Automatic annotation (TrEMBL):
<keyword id="KW-0560">Oxidoreductase</keyword>
<comment type="similarity">
    <text>Belongs to the short-chain dehydrogenases/reductases (SDR) family.</text>
</comment>
<dbReference type="Pfam" id="PF13561">
    <property type="entry name" value="adh_short_C2"/>
</dbReference>
<protein>
    <submittedName>
        <fullName>Glucose 1-dehydrogenase</fullName>
    </submittedName>
</protein>
<dbReference type="InterPro" id="IPR002347">
    <property type="entry name" value="SDR_fam"/>
</dbReference>
<dbReference type="InterPro" id="IPR036291">
    <property type="entry name" value="NAD(P)-bd_dom_sf"/>
</dbReference>
<dbReference type="InterPro" id="IPR020904">
    <property type="entry name" value="Sc_DH/Rdtase_CS"/>
</dbReference>
Length: 251
């Protein structure tokens, strides 16, 4: 049997990058997948088409995770289409690397609203759908949570906050059969990291030189670990922060 057979999974920010890879891997393991996006309908539709062309089940649902009404609608759509929810992956996130002098209130709030508040809002609505049977939450954090880089003060703070939420909720969910874990990727080649100028930069080369496994990550590297954490193979893992970074962010 496939690892996620009969599971319903919501992946936020799945129109591209790491989220898209997680959506495809989950569907390949039998999950019915909700591909959430903020503005890239074309990207989300492409992910859904690739999944359905391969015999899987998926729908695309627009929704800004930082807006409560959007999140309520996203979960309603999930329930209407698939009858419930088993796995939430909080992947939607933005990174705005800025020197301290250039940080604006807008950049601060945008990053915290999407990366932190967005995750809280989706968790609040998802646990209603988990109900008595429980469920599984994966927060896509970052190695930058433990090892912040220069100009990444605000972004790193959002991910440290997200990891604190993971640990606090793992305890708060005691007795409710809800697992919650963080995955902390190293630098991964995505549309976002390419647009931010990391991929192909001197910073990437320096990073790779410090990485024991000697390369930048690919979205599939993260997605395969997300499948494991979402599956019953990880049934006794909760409240963990798992670095998936070629060794550069190991503890
Ligand atoms: P990406 O390529 O930029 O994709 C970001 C995704 O998030 C898109 O699907 C985007 O949707 C969605 N999104 C953005 N704001 C949203 C919002 N308000 N509501 C709903 N969806 C929203 O990003 P990525 O590089 O794959 O990163 C994904 C996650 O991994 C992020 O949380 C990031 O912090 C984390 N991460 C990435 C790296 C890396 O090197 N790439 C390393 C460590 C951690 P639209 O396309 O519709 O805007």
């Amino acid at each position: 049997m496939s690892k996620l057979e009969n599971k319903v999974a919501l992946i936020t920010g799945a129109s591209k990058g790491i989220g898209a890879a997680i959506a495809k891997h989950f569907a390949a393991e039998g999950a019915k997948v909700v591909v959430n996006y903020a503005s890239s309908k074309e990207g989300a539709d492409k992910v859904v088409k690739e999944i359905t062309d391969n015999g899987g089940t998926a729908i695309a649902v627009q929704g800004d995770v930082s807006k409560k009404d959007d999140v309520i609608r996203l979960l309603e759509e999930t329930k209407n289409q698939f009858g419930g929810l088993d796995v939430l992956v909080n992947n939607a996130g933005i990174y705005d690397y800025l020197p301290i002098e250039n940080i604006t209130e807008e950049s601060f709030h945008n990053q915290f609203n999407i990366n932190v508040l967005g995750s809280i809002l989706t968790i609040q609505e998802s646990i209603k759908l988990f109900g008595e049977k429980g469920g599984n939450i994966i927060n896509i954090s970052s190695g930058a949570s433990n090892s912040p880089l220069p100009t990444g003060s605000v972004y790193s703070a959002t991910k440290t906050a997200l990891d604190a939420i993971t640990v606090a909720l793992s305890k708060e969910f005691s007795g409710r059969n809800i697992r919650i874990n963080s995955i902390l990727p190293g630098i991964v080649e995505t549309e976002g990291s390419t647009a931010a100028g990391f991929i192909g930069s001197e910073a990437e080369a320096q990073f790779v030189s410090k990485t024991p496994l000697g390369r930048t990550g690919q979205p599939d590297d993260i997605a395969k670990v997300a499948v494991f954490i979402a599956s019953d193979d990880a049934a006794w893992i909760t409240g963990e922060k798992l670095a998936v970074s070629g060794g550069v962010y190991g503890f």
